[in-house]
Amino acid sequence: MNYRKEIYSLPRGRLARWLTAPGQDAPHEIRVALVGTLFGTLPIFFGGVSNTVAVAWVLARRHPTLPFKLWFIAEIAVCALRLVVLVYSRRRAVQGQTTPTDLYVLLAPLWGATVGYGALVTAMSGDWVSATLAFLSAAAMVGGICFRNFAAPRLVAVMICLSLGPCCIGALLGGEPVLLLTLLQIPFYVFAMSVAARHLNALLISTMKAERENSHRARHDTLTGLLNRDGLLSAACRTGASPIKAGMTAFFVDLDGFKSINDAHGHEAGDLLLAQVATRLTTLASKGALVARIGGDEFVIVDPRVDAAPDDWATLAADAIERPFDLAPGLRVSVGASVGFTQVAADEPDVDLVLRRADLAMYAVKRKKALREERC
């Protein structure tokens, strides 16, 4: 399941992994998708950056002192570095290469710290117009932090604390009693936004899990757990990563005598038989092979590598299926198997055509069997 075209690497460092830990247990695929949401889009990035840089620039011009100049320089440096890392990461993610996720994640709290530093120096300057602007900017950024990064609730909490925490320190050191009210406001605000991030995170993960399960059901056979026809075609046609390539072999397997077992012993016995056939075929197939049940008693294996010649492998598959099946105590049955195969040509991107050729080869095997039985 891909929620984005780009696939970003999971963080490796202890701190970055702690910051991006999801709010609940999540499969690897979902954790990758959650990390991908942290990278956002360039318009969202520029929206936040333009606010903090503009405020720092305006107030540095209003107060051309060292603390304000340092604030403006820090904003420019951190935002520029974040932009470079973001663009570089997006390029590598599109190409399927590892991304500097740790660096990108750790730059986010650093950016929050620059916002908080600006609020601190303006509060201590005694210029309440500047302090109001800086505090307003910090508060506005917290909303964006929460709703942009709620895939990582811990990261949200840390960024909010770094952005708004210095406002409390500035209120204590600024000498303005009215600002002491922020000592009550900001902790409640941090708590509320952190809780909101956790709730949104839980909702996002639940939605991703539901989509993942629905996607799996849509592409897999519920009886055998193998790919179904749609799942086989989807796996074979993934853009840029098709597992069906020239030189592979597609096998089409059809059971002989399956209907008589269904008629004699019931559909439950037939279902057990199909499940055991699926297990035997999966065991025979090599690692990386696509194994699918595409019809009632029809199976397809697309194998990148077989240990024997294709005709010998087809014989092995038929022999494996023709061994008796123990479906229940005292119930042992046998079926036959007709196995046809075709090799994928270099100029044959049409998966349906490959399957049709394998299907025709299977029916040719079935006709030969019928002719031998007639002669006997």
Structure description:
By secondary structure, the protein is α+β, with helices and mostly antiparallel strands. A 4-stranded antiparallel sheet has the order 2-3-1-6, with helices on both faces. It has a two-stranded antiparallel ribbon with strand order 4-5. α6 packs parallel to α8. The model has no long low-confidence stretch (mean pLDDT 86). InterPro entries: Biofilm_reg_signaling, GGDEF_dom, Nucleotide_cyclase, Rev_trsase/Diguanyl_cyclase. It holds the Pfam family GGDEF.
Q: What order do the helices and strands come in, and which of them pair?
A:
Blueprint: H1 14-19, H2 28-38, H3 42-62, H4 66-94, H5 101-125, H6 128-149, H7 153-173, H8 182-219, H9 229-236, E1 249-256, H10 258-265, H11 267-284, E2 290-293, E3 298-303, H12 310-322, E4 325-328, E5 331-333, E6 336-343, H13 351-375
Helix pairs in contact: 3-4, 3-6, 4-5, 5-6, 5-7, 6-7, 6-8, 7-8, 10-11, 11-12
Pfam families: GGDEF
Transmembrane segments: 32-58, 70-89, 101-122, 128-147, 154-174, 186-205
Protein name: Diguanylate cyclase (GGDEF)-like protein
Overall shape: it is elongated
* Low-confidence runs: none
Question: What's the helix count?
Answer: 13
Report the helical percentage. 55-70%
Instruction: Please give the number of β-strands.
Output: 6
Structural class: alpha+beta
User: What does the radius of gyration come to?
Assistant: 31 Å
Q: What is the residue-mean pLDDT, rounded to a whole number? A: 86
Q: Tell me what portion of residues adopts beta-strand conformation.
A: 5-15%
Read across the widest sheet, the strand sequence of neighbours is 2-3-1-6
Tell me the major beta sheet: 4 strands, antiparallel
> Total domains, how many?
2
Taking the alpha carbons of the first and last residues, their distance comes to 53 Å
SSE order: HHHHHHHHHEHHEEHEEEH
